Amino acid sequence: MCRHTAWLGTSQTLASLLHDPPHGLLRQAWEPRRMLHGRINADGFGAGWYAPEIRTEPARYRRAVPIWADASFASLAGVISSGCVLAAVRNATVGMPVEETATAPYTDGRHLLSHNGRVDLTVPLGLLRGSRGAPVPDSRCDSALLAAVVWQRLAAGAHLADAVAEVVVAAGGRDGAARLNLLVTDGSQIVATTWGETLSYRVSGGENTGVGIGADMEVGTEIGAGVEVASEPSDDGDGWIDLDDHQLLVADTRNVIVSNLT
Ligand code: GLN
Q1: What residue's CA is closest to ligand 1, atom 9?
Q2: Which residues approach ligand 1 with their CB closer than 6 A?
Q3: pLDDT tens-digit readout, 125-178
Q4: Ligand 1 centre from 175 Cα, in Å?
Q5: pLDDT surpassing 60 at residue 196
Q6: Single pTM value for the model
Q7: Could you give all domains of the chain from N- to C-terminal order, each with its CATH number?
Q8: What is the CA(183)–ligand 1 centre distance, in A?
Q9: Could you tell me which SUPFAM superfamilies the record lists for this protein (predicted)?
Q10: Cα separation of 74 and 76, whole Å?
């Protein structure tokens, strides 16, 4: 399994998000604390971020080497700042290619997506509607195929959270052994799922209202400086909230909503 993380809020350097926290993504590459499947994430890493004043398409940096082996990235990360970042370290699923194009984040030119998990390759192939005009996956990695299914739903006009939830529930229904923690952003909101792996979030500079709303157990959280959504907490500080399995998180710069997927 992989570990992934996303930040939405005030502008921060990539290093302050990924390298500096004591249990941030860099540390999680070699010593994850909550990963349920696998022990180390050494098959590649990637970061994507938005620079809306320059262009709408997010920038990406992906390599098929361990994050700790790329000192040049660590150097760049100290001076690249963004208000929306999504990054992942990879432990390739058995049988999947180890190559840059199989490494998250994937993009359709507007969104960034990471998949922590596995799914039978026939499932996303079956969910791609029609072959003509279907998005062409970057790689034959299961995660790249899942990303293509999400891109197709979005291109057909679905809202981000609806597209992600629909694809996860459909894929989970077709493969009972699938693990489907997706993390997706469009630069102004973060959408994440839990389906077989861990996920936590923390709001900085805001207040957790802790309101249980109705039977679907939504939790509303007001955001101040920003929100971090991560496979596991990047430090032992206060404020981290763990999701249950089979949940959907939708965060923007105003609040975080967590609901049940099924
Ligand atoms: N199945 C994906 C891959 O091979 C994700 C793996 C993971 O979550 N470790 O990259």
Answers
A1: 1
A2: 1-2, 38, 90-93, 96, 102, 115-118, 141-143
A3: 999 988 677 889 989 999 999 999 999 999 999 999 999 999 999 999 999 999
A4: 16
A5: yes
A6: 0.93
A7: 3-260 (3.60.20.10)
A8: 13
A9: N-terminal nucleophile aminohydrolases (Ntn hydrolases) (SSF56235)
A10: 6
